[in-house]
Amino acid sequence: MELKPSPFAPTDYPDMDALDGFRLGVAGTGVKYKARNDVLVVSMPEGASVAGVFTKSKCPSAPVDWCKGHLAQGRARALIVNASNANAFTGAAGVQTVTTVAQAAADKVGGKPEEVFLASTGVIGEPLDPAPIVNCFGALFDEGKQDASWMDAARTIMTTDTFPKMATASVDIDRVEVSIYGIAKGSGMIAPDMATMLGFVFTDAVIAPDVLQALLSKHVETSFNAITVDSDTSTSDTLMLFASGAAAKRGCPAIEDADDNRLVAFSAALSALLEDLAKMVVRDGEGASKFLEITVTGAQSDGAAKRVALSIANSPLVKTAAAGEDANWGRVVMAVGKAGEMADRDKLTIWFGPHRLASNGVRDPNYSEEAASGYMKQDELEIRVDLDMGEGQATVWTCDLTHGYISINGDYRS
Amino acid sequence: MELKPSPFAPTDYPDMDALDGFRLGVAGTGVKYKARNDVLVVSMPEGASVAGVFTKSKCPSAPVDWCKGHLAQGRARALIVNASNANAFTGAAGVQTVTTVAQAAADKVGGKPEEVFLASTGVIGEPLDPAPIVNCFGALFDEGKQDASWMDAARTIMTTDTFPKMATASVDIDRVEVSIYGIAKGSGMIAPDMATMLGFVFTDAVIAPDVLQALLSKHVETSFNAITVDSDTSTSDTLMLFASGAAAKRGCPAIEDADDNRLVAFSAALSALLEDLAKMVVRDGEGASKFLEITVTGAQSDGAAKRVALSIANSPLVKTAAAGEDANWGRVVMAVGKAGEMADRDKLTIWFGPHRLASNGVRDPNYSEEAASGYMKQDELEIRVDLDMGEGQATVWTCDLTHGYISINGDYRS
């Protein structure tokens, strides 16, 4: 189906020229798409570090199993992404496919197959033939056709994304400037058999794998693990962080300790970049007409705050109210109540933007339907709930639930 | 908004004439609805038993708090239901309202206020004035206008329900025939501030309160606690069971022990009646065009099976696929994977009706897109998943997610 661009599509994109140590190649297998690229190859120098976080699904895709299985050795020579088939629920054949692709890529870049990381997005349950992907390697590697731009890379991994997702940051480590580049795709569905989110972040800094992993595991909680479009967790969700170490030749020190003070600025920049990419996924959420930031404070713990925030963010009634521009705070009460975390109705305070709509267990004495309804006409909405139970707090991001979502996922016959 | 009847509305209704010991009265306050009744009064004889189960919401309505608080004494003289305002998130005023209504009803029927049970459905967060309800009592009680039919009662508690929900059963206790009558409302929304399910079951049997409670608590798990329309738990969900004991004069023995063998047939009939009523709520689910029965077998426990089944039943992607008549078993894999219960992708088997679509971690070798798609055109669908992990199993019921749901809950400006 033809999708119109999200109203939240960016009007311009960041300048992201070559990143020291990484070479990009894109190609089209022609298997599913005729007129676009669907294979991304990122090669990196020997000794590059890698970290990753993956779907918690009990039915993960074959590439997810592969990446998890080889993350511990911490080194990467290549990343291969295909956007035509998720290679999920494909059994032994799926495992054979990732092994074949990884071996073929390793033969080209040099290095071991376990230093090749893979991600696939597309149909669940259909066998993925490795040949069309491997056949792209000849041109990409032998003929040195690894001259693609980061925009090319971001576009190549899209499914029903209506815009490419890119973010960049520059930061000093011990007075040497390093860069962080990130691309992501999701939460699109090119056909309703698909559900996946992919994010890849790259830096030329010199950072040990365990340090990279510590940074990624920490910051994913407040970025990609703090967004939801429809509460449905993919079999293929993958977020990986690669460090080429190429900045060493410019005098950048190698960081071996996650607590190294020289990493403070880098960590902050990475956190901001991940949050930025994650929000882009929500802004491109299927059928999205509103972007919602939901903050819960005063919970018994940060974890409790996040569970309450996600209960609100995943509530179909809250999301349809947002779509209808209805300041329906009663549905927020409902969602807090069903979250299962400690809450006391009579201590609850609810704000929509600057408007306090409910407090002390009743509608706010100064409640104004006009003011609240006026606020709901904005494209970007902030809902804040204070539980007055403790110090725990969390912020999550989501979009509304519209006819567009139903059309994308239900209006067809297979 | 004007709602068209659910495609699953029954074509005829059970005969339910007077039930020994219960008198029904209906009236209209005129507060919200001009042309219909919105107050139901059920009076019952001294010594009638009561049992109840209520929403687990941390933000329950004032009537729910009232009923929970007075359930322990086990006796009921009256049930008062209003369908115009949920009296939820109304603070001290809401508590005053239930106290006033209960006292006024107790004065009329004789008995203590705590023997009067209350339920309200409607807007959340707006004060509920007790006066219009209490003003109905004069006619209903003094002038003996308690001659309403069970159909009247079922209609009076409706909100956006498109059909009244009634069920009946007759069963012998120690060779004396007793009856079980049930009515329910939901999952409608007369305005999107509302979200509630109410169910009331009545019998003329002679059953002690703790026995009634044991029966209700057991059977609610496989009936009302096994349905979902949109995963949003109401602040007001209420299911109550009343026993008038009037069958005693026909020689029906008093049942004081939940394990009494003379209760076996009654328990089975009650279970079937509750399941029947619960399914009616799903069949009248907002925007429903498909009725889905989801069965999970082979889980580590019945609880685990139910959590997996509800993960499937609440998945927007599974529900939109049903709406689209797409045999999208990949989304079922996704929903099993995200449920968090023990599952092994490679042991999973998935059936849509008689069609086995996936087994042993791959698409079924005999998979036929035509056959599967043909099956999806039915109004009533069965999805079965076997996890091959243990003996646990559960069945839940839901409906699809359609444009109708979005229209009912999002297509308006408040």
Describe the structure.
Two copies of one chain form a homodimer. Chain A is α/β, with parallel strands linked by helices and 414 residues long. Helix content of chain A is 30%, strand content 24%. Chain A is built from eleven helices and 18 strands. Chain A has helices at residues 62-70, 91-109, 131-142, 150-156, 209-220, 264-283, 302-313, 316-323, 329-338, 369-375, 403-410, and strands at 23-27, 39-43, 49-54, 78-82, 85-88, 116-120, 123-124, 165-173, 176-185, 198-203, 227-228, 238-243, 291-299, 349-352, 355-359, 362-363, 380-386, 392-399. A seven-stranded mixed β-sheet of chain A has the order 11-18-13-17-14-15-16, sandwiched between helices. A five-stranded mixed β-sheet of chain A has the order 3-12-10-9-8, with helices on both faces. Chain A has a four-stranded mixed β-sheet with strand order 1-2-4-6, with helices on both faces. In chain A, a hairpin with a 2-residue loop joins strand 14 (349-352) and strand 15 (355-359). In chain A, helix 2 runs parallel beside helix 3. The two termini of chain A are 12 Å apart. The model of chain A is unreliable at 188-195 (pLDDT under 50).
